[in-house]
Amino acid sequence: MNWLLLLLCMVAQAPEEGDPLDPEPEFKIDYEEKVVLVDLPLRIVRDGRPVTELKLADLTVQENGVPAQVRDLKKVQTPLKMHILMDLSTSNADNIFQIKAATRFLIKKMRKGDTAKLSYFSNTYQELTEYHDNRDFLIQKLTRVTPLGSTALYDGINAALEDMRQHEGPKALFLFSDGHDLMSHTKEVDLELKVKNYGIPIYMISYEAANAKLPPLLAQQTQFMTTLIGLSGGHLFRGDREFQGDLNTALKRARTRFLVNYISPNAGAGKSWRSIMATVNGCNNCTLIYRRGYEM
Predict the structure, then answer these.
(1) Which residue of 3, 7, 9, 278 sits 20 to 30 Å from the alpha carbon of 252, by its own alpha carbon?
(2) H or E stretch covering 242
């Protein structure tokens, strides 16, 4: 009787035909999506002035014509390359003390990551230093600064711009001059074209009185420099006064960038050149300065 009961229990608990003794593990497919996040520093100039406010909703970014998803937009202060160009012509001799003092001020305001280069012009353009982050070294080099010779202002600006365009990242030219030129080979039209194309802001500090009565040629040159500075996105500071506050403002403007973070579209398409196009809705007469592409 016990044997018969045991047999019946075993038959009742036996699995049906075709049912597995143990359940199969669930089959899962691993799917990996490549996501590439891109940081894009962006500088915007409108009518010769930096734009310092921007809404994310107004910004559009495309890669190779495909819209990208912009994740974040913030305003940042970035390390800066400063090229300080001093007018050491004899006509500017009375201002050498102020020029040195203002240059020392700029050097002392350097932040971590900043570099500065010192140069000057009279008859010709000369470099005092390469780009350097050592403040004491740069200030020491100012002891060699003495007025001499005539004025080749346009040649000096041209040489400084050609030097600066070889370097990446945010940069600004700080120019100490009365704005007059007596012997340059560089033509005004050529200098204006370079300023438009290079996108380097020029901040000019002139100790000449703003309402000074000038001979026609010098008045014409002063007007040209005013136009040139505006085209660069910089600013002209004029008058016989202290410029510390103005220089602080200029440094802040030159360092200000918008940092755009977006997801690259079609990131899994393999290695290729990605052309970037950024636009700002409703920003009339705006020039956007940013890198135009990258290799993935």
Answers:
(1) 278
(2) none
Say yes or no: domain 81-255 is CATH 3.90.660.20: no
Amino acid at 45: V
Q: Is 95 helix (H, G, I), strand (E, B) or coil?
A: helix
Task: Name the strand (E) or helix (H) holding 225.
Answer: helix 216-232
φ and ψ at residue 164, rounded to 5 degrees: -70, -35
How many Å apart are CA 257 and CA 220, to the nearest integer?
34
Of 54-63, 97-106, 193-202, the least confident = 193-202
| Token output for 109 | 């305001």
0.85 exceeded by pTM: no
64 touches 275 (CB < 8 A): yes
> Cβ contacts of residue 217 below 8 Å, gap of 6+?
none
Joined tokens for residue 129: 């230093």
Judge whether residue 286 has pLDDT over 60.
yes
How far apart (Å, rounded) are the C-alpha atoms in residues 83 and 107?
11
Asked whether the beta carbons of 263 and 71 are under 8 A apart, the reply is yes
Tokens at 22, concatenated: 């143990």
What is the average pLDDT across 244-267? 89
CATH 3.40.50.410 positions along the chain are 81-255
Structure tokens that stand for 69 in this block: 């998803």
What's the CA gap between 230 and 146, in Å, rounded? 29
Cβ atoms of 90 and 149 closer than 8 Å: yes
Distance in angstroms (rounded) separating the CA atoms of residues 217 and 222: 9
Handedness of CA 96, 99, 105, 106 (dihedral sign): negative
* One-letter amino acid of 84: I
Contact between 95 and 152 under an 8 Å Cβ cutoff? The reply is no
